[in-house]
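Practice record 12: protein with calcium ion.
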Amino acid sequence: MYKPKTYFPSPQTWQDKTFYFAVTDRFIDGDSTNNNLSGNFDPKNPYKVHGGDFKGVTKAIPYLKSLGVDVLWLTPIQKQAYGEYHGYAISDFYSVNPTLGTFGEFRELVKTAHEYGIYVCLDVIVNHSGDLLNAKSGKWKWNPEGYELAYKDKKKKHFPKIFQNPELFHNYGNVADWNDPKQVLYGEFPGGLDDFKTENPIVREEMLKIWSWWIEHTDVDAFRIDTAKHVEISFWNDFIKGIKTKAKELGKDNFWIFAESYEFEDHKSQRFLNPDSIGENTFDSVLNYTLWGTQKEVFGKNGSVRKLAEIWEENKKSFGETTCNKLMTFVENHDQPRLLSYQENANPNLLKLALVYNFTAPGIPIVYYGAEIPFKGGNDPENREDFFKTENPLSTEKENFKLISYLASIRKKFRGISEGSFEIYFVDDKSILFKRSFGPEKPIWVAINLSNEKVKLDLPKRGIYYQNTYNQIAMLLSSSVFVEPYGFEILTQER
Ligand SMILES: [Ca+2]
Ligand SMILES: [Ca+2]
Ligand SMILES: [Ca+2]
């Protein structure tokens, strides 16, 4: 099996990076000949394969580069139980999904990304596989007594072979109550996804082998870990240690691993970063779901802007200020309705302002593909639109494209934004003014106005300010800044 001769080194820091997350099947179709290789191609059915693939992503790398993307996170790329388009139902952990392309094409994707200075992040699953096993009896309601498991189809089994043993899977049936911590760990998802006995040493050892193999053979740079809260916490210390050790051997000494912790209480996510809960080898970061929820209320549903200040206080208390700068933040993703779907005829500026906040407040931003169009789809699967069917999908002339590319550029330029302190100077129901500063560097001020009237916000009197919006730099002649309706301003302050 192909192995790279040299490996792409890790960046020194991930904090100033901009992530982009694409549902691979829905992004760019670069090769129509692979579309029906799983017999599941139906461009009109939102639950079936639409044709996006590795060749398409590779073609889009220059576009992503000009968008300002540093890290590309793709939905899982492994072979699926029934050719699922979304990737979260793996059957063979050592093969690529044929409708996405070949292993060689994925290597080409990573190589091309690296040539453009873009890192690649794999979506990793250890909690479950696709739905190949069920109870022999046919019943599958949650049952703590357990069922006898059997393959649904004897010709459709797990790979690697070591997984072809029903003893390695939990046998209690579907989760009936998500508030029962036992069911959260040991139950099957409603789709019937087979839940690994992640507490079993054979599973633990094999998962480490599998996911190390992917780094060694594809030269990827980071992992996003799916469904982390559905795996007992004692699994992670050795897994993270093993992955980091392998990556280091290959010259990747800052391999980034972040967890999907789908929680709306910060302490539940914080345990993944806390050595007292998880062990010495913690995750590097988690998705900040509480901030997502607040952004949805404020920018998606016209909630009071003061909520942003409240969630900041909570995030700060739970994670600490330094860690808040490392949390993965997002306005949209594949599990949630798009921001502009919450209100009928939503003002498209709301998404722009949410992106401004997401890029300039603490945390590492992840742009969900299609924010640059912008897409407006509601619940899954409506939020997994076909990017390649839009008009000129790779055009760099779209308004949101220009905004994202500008925001990504200032994250790299000003350390205050990626590493600095966060101070809310003014907030009311409709607007916010905050400051990001780092050591002796020039502080950045960000003003956001969510009302339909122009607002005047006062800055500290002592200081000379420059408006930096879209890198158009102009001196501010007073210490007040006027912000257009549904507009924003980004300023630098000379000391
Ligand atoms: Ca295709
Ligand atoms: Ca589980
Ligand atoms: Ca199953």
